[in-house]
Structures are given as structure tokens and as C-alpha cells.
Design brief:
44% helix, 6 strands, 6-stranded mixed β-sheet, Rossmann fold, single chain, alpha/beta
């Protein structure tokens, strides 16, 4: 089975400029070893974090998003799925995974997403767990 993965915003953010496990997970998609899926809502949240936390200028944000568009499949979500009562912002991650027929969500959100563990046969895992499973 070819894994299809949605990377949570914090994974995409962590993969920007750092060469840790989130970066290595993203590289699996860039190399075509897994299929990466995302949506505009995740890109919008990433752009905001790049601006507020890393002081990226508009051109830098655009370059980063264009880079990701080069190997992540973009799906359209309706923002109607309601799963994460404690943090509704995370619903877009799960809805993106459902719409994109993902097998995995890779997240660093240990408070809201990780505890779910599995949603409609979509495994919710950490970057370390995902990389250990698919880096071979």
C-alpha cells in the first residue's frame, strides 16, 4: 500500500529551515516515496506562522508555499467536518485527510490530534513514528 499523508501545519512549519524528523518526513513526499496531500486552509495557517514566528516576507512565504505545491497534492475541503471539539482549528487537518483519501496524518499536536490515534482508518502519528515506518 502506497501511503498518502497529510502533514499538520506544525510539521510543515518545523520542516522549514530545520533538518530534523519533520523535514525528513516531508522529504519522503518530495522524493515520491509517499504521496503528500494538503489544502489551502493548511497553507494559509502555515503562511501566517511563517510571517508571525519567522518574520518571513510575502515573497519568502510565497516561495515556501510554491515549493510545497511542487510535490503536495492540493484538495478542496468544505470546512464542515467537526471532530476536534477542544480545538476546531484542527478539523481542517482531519477533513483534508478524509477528502484526500489519506492513510496517515503526521502531527506534532500531542494535545488534540495525537490522542485521537485513528479516524476513519486514517492513522494519526508523530513524525518519528511515520519516518520509522516509511523511510526504508
Amino acid at each position: 500500500m502506497h501511503p498518502v499523508v497529510v502533514y499538520d501545519t506544525n510539521i510543515l512549519f518545523s520542516a522549514t529551515g530545520w533538518r530534523g524528523t519533520p523535514y525528513r518526513c516531508l522529504e519522503l513526499a518530495r522524493q515520491g516515496k509517499v504521496e503528500g496531500v494538503t489544502c489551502i486552509e493548511i497553507f494559509d495557517e502555515l503562511a501566517e506562522k511563517l510571517s508571525t514566528k519567522l518574520n518571513f516576507f510575502l515573497t519568502q512565504r510565497r516561495q515556501r508555499l510554491d515549493y510545497l505545491r511542487g510535490f503536495l497534492r492540493l484538495v478542496t475541503i468544505t470546512n464542515t467536518l467537526k471532530v476536534v471539539d477542544a480545538n476546531p482549528d484542527d478539523d481542517k487537518i482531519i477533513e483534508c485527510a478524509v477528502v484526500g483519501s489519506a492513510t496517515h496524518i503526521v502531527t506534532g499536536d500531542h494535545q488534540h490530534l495525537s490522542p485521537i490515534g485513528n479516524y476513519q482508518n486514517i492513522q494519526i502519528v508523530t513524525a518519528a513514528e511515520f519516518y520509522a515506518q516509511f523511510s526504508r
